[in-house]
Structure formats: structure tokens, C-alpha cells
Amino acid sequence: MDKRDLRSFTLEKLTEEMKSFGEKPFRAKQIYGWLHQKQVTSFDEMTNISKDLRKKLEENYTLKNLKIVEKLVSKEDNTSKYLFDIGDNIVIESVLMKYSYGNAVCISSQAGCRMGCTFCASTIGGLERDLLPGEMAGQIYEIQRDTGERVSNVVIMGSGEPLDNYDNVLDFLEIIHSKEGNNLSHRHITLSTCGIVDKIYKLAEEKLQITLAISLHAPNNEIRQNTMPVARKYDYDSLIKAAKYYADTTKRRVTFEYALIKGVNDGEDNARELASRLKGLMCHVNLIPVNDVKENNYVRSTEENIRSFAETLQRLGIETTVRRKLGSDINAACGQLRKSYKEKKVKEE
Ligand code: SAH
User: Fold this and answer.
1) CB of 171 sitting under 6 A from ligand 1
2) How far apart (Å, rounded) are the C-alpha atoms in residues 251 and 245?
């Protein structure tokens, strides 16, 4: 059996593991501190852990480190894209966005994705594998190491569907915010989902203070089904109901993401229907100009169209913002860099 990744244990689980070695809880805390506070990448660096125990750790566990294979820095804005090698010829990507309030990082939750949204590059090769909690945290730690600056905000909005990797994502959320570790407030974390309804209910019950973002991208089920296969499993009304439940239970405002695709979902009638669907829900709509992906024929709505879509929603009482387009010169949209890297590799081989 493969050795398990020590960075992927929550403090509670690590304490249990160490107990089975006859170690006291404070040892687990020390090891956890090395991994998640000091963020070391080898057992040897854990200098206050006895050589004996370090050896035992090395024999029984591994550290799944991430290696930067490519870093692209946008010339247009303060966005950088990192491509990480996670072993077995698998690469994943993360995006760093520098804002006045701090450094935000968009992390991947899976290598690839099996949700099949027609506009998304991450899903084209299907799902390679789920990421471990330590590999999600590792994206943040590596970027902190590379920049020498702390990451203040995290969005789980890179490749993958986080609610399709639920347990690992939950452990990651625990690890990243624990005081004995990286100590990042849940209020500074956003989880974005394509809308797996039963998992939204489950997440609501966890009563975390994270922000939930739902990729809606349509005003009704017919249009949604055309671009998002998940809509065939969970219909529109049940998704909106789950979003309301999440907002009511956690008292956190839900974000709806809506990528505007010319002629598909960007009409005035679409805006009006969307507003009527969201009325009364504690929410906020984030309009995104769709990024072109070669494989599909979708075209971004015009600036003017985006503006008038936003105005219609606002006039009808729905809080709306338009996302700034970041890093388009470095393939910063979901899955694009990873995909172009893989294509390049195939050509080389
Ligand atoms: N699976 C999750 C998170 C990853 S996708 C989800 O669906 O939310 C992150 C966001 O990027 C989603 O809102 C997704 O719909 C959006 N996205 C994917 N491809 C896009 C594209 N070509 N242009 C604009 N947004 C895109």
C-alpha cells in the first residue's frame, strides 16, 4: 500500500495516528506545527523531533510535495499562474492575484474534473484524480514560500469540483484554518461549486463561515442543461432552494457566478428571469465575461451587453458585480494552462 501523506492529516487525526505509535498528543502538535505553520517539506527539518521518531515517520508516511514546473506572470496585471507537478505525470494549477487588501490564491481541488461543463477547459480530459487535503494546502504553502508573502484569501475555484471531493476538501478547510497551523480565517475562504445539491445541504450543516459560490450560468433549467450536465441531475429550483438553505443556516450571503456567453444566456429576458428566480435570497451575482476555450464555439458577450445585463439585475433589486478579467494573457482561466501544458508535452513526446 502507498504510504499516506502526513500533510493531509488534521491535527485530530494526526494525534490519533501518533497515539498508535505510543506518542503523546504534544508530539502530534509539534509535527503538525512543522508541516502547517513552518511549512517544511522534509522530515529532516523537524529538528525537535527525535531522530528515532523521524525515522519512524519516514518509514510509515510520505510528504506529497508540490514542485513548481512553470510560473507565468501577467504583464497586464498582478496575476501569476503556477503549474505544479504532483507526481505520476500529473500537473495542477493555481492562480495568485495580488489585490490592495492582500494576496488571494485560487486553488484546484481535483486534477481534472468529471462534471463536463461545456465551456470549461478543466473537464476536457476528464478527472485524473482527487487532490488530498495536503495537496490543496500545499498550493498555498508553495506560493507563500515563492513570494515570501502571506496568502490572505483563498478561493477553491481552480480545476475540479470541490463537492465531488467532499471529505478531502473538508479536512483541507480544517487544516488551513487551524490555529496550530496556517491560521487562515474561514471568512476569507470561498468554495465554488457547480451545484451538487445534496452536498450543499451537507456543507450547510457543517456551519463553517466560508462563502459559498454557486456556478449558475443560466436563468432556468433548459439553458443550464445545455451547458452544465449536472443540471440534469439536480434541477434549477432544487439548487436555488439549497442555496437559500445554505444562506439561512450559515447567515452567509451566497454568491452566484454567471459567465455571460453571447446568444446563449445573455439576453435581457434572461436577466429578468434570473432576477425573478433570485428574489428574496440573500445573495450576490458575479457576472463573468466568458473566457474563450478553443474546443467550443462560445463567444464572450460584448461589454455593452454585460453592462446592460448587470443594470437589469440591479434595477430588479439583485446585487450584482462584474468580475474584472485577470491574467487573460497567461491562460489564467480555469484549466487552461494545465491543458496547454499537457498538449505541449504530448507534442514533445
Ligand atoms: N467546479 C467548481 C469550481 C471550479 S470552476 C464550479 O463549478 O464552480 C470555477 C469557475 O470558473 C466556475 O464558476 C466555472 O463555471 C467558471 N468557468 C469555467 N470555465 C470558464 C470559462 N471558459 N469562462 C469563464 N468562466 C469559466
Assistant:
1) no
2) 10
3-state SS, residue 86: coil
Mapping DSSP to helix (H, G, I), strand (E, B) and coil, where does residue 287 land? strand
Q: Considering only CA atoms, which of 295, 204, 196 is closest in space to residue 238?
A: 196
Per-residue pLDDT of 12-23, as tens digits, reads 999 999 999 899
Nearest alpha-carbon partner for 336 in 11, 106, 24: 106
User: SS3 of 168, please?
Assistant: helix
Which among 133, 97, 129 is positioned nearest to 6, based on CA atoms?
133
Task: Supply angle C-alpha 327, 329, 332, rounded to 5.
Answer: 45
Q: Which of 335, 344, 341 is nearest to 115 (CA)?
A: 335
**Residues whose CB is less than 8 angstroms from the CB of residue 96 and which lie 6 or more positions away in sequence, other chains included:** 79, 80, 81, 82, 103, 104, 105, 143, 147, 151
Q: Is the CB of 214 under 6 A from ligand 1?
A: no
What lies within 8 Å, CB to CB, of 59 at 6+ separation is: none
Task: Look up residue 45 and give its amino acid.
Answer: E
- Residue among 115, 192, 197, 325 to mutate when testing ligand 1 (max atoms within 8 A of CB): 192
Query: Alpha-carbon torsion 31, 35, 39, 42, what sign?
Result: positive
* C-alpha of residue 124 to centroid of ligand 1, in Å: 13
**334 has catalytic annotation:** yes
**In terms of Cα–Cα distance, which of 278, 282, 291, 268 is closest to 339?**
291
Which long-range contacts (C-beta less than 8 Å, at least 24 apart) are formed by 305-312? 305/260, 305/262, 305/266, 306/260, 306/266, 308/268, 308/271, 309/260, 309/266, 309/268, 309/270, 309/271, 312/268, 312/271, 312/272, 312/275
pLDDT for 297? 81
Judge residue 81's burial from the number of C-beta atoms within 10 Å of its C-beta, 0-12 exposed, 13-18 middle, 19 or more buried: buried
> Which residue has the CA at smallest separation from atom 8 of ligand 1?
193
Q: Please pick, among 120, 194, 283, 334, the residue that the annotation labels catalytic.
A: 334
The 10s digit of each residue's pLDDT in 320-330 is 999 876 566 66
Q: How far apart are the first and last CA of the chain?
A: 31
pLDDT per residue as tens digits for the range 25-73:
999 999 999 999 999 999 999 999 999 999 999 999 999 999 999 999 9
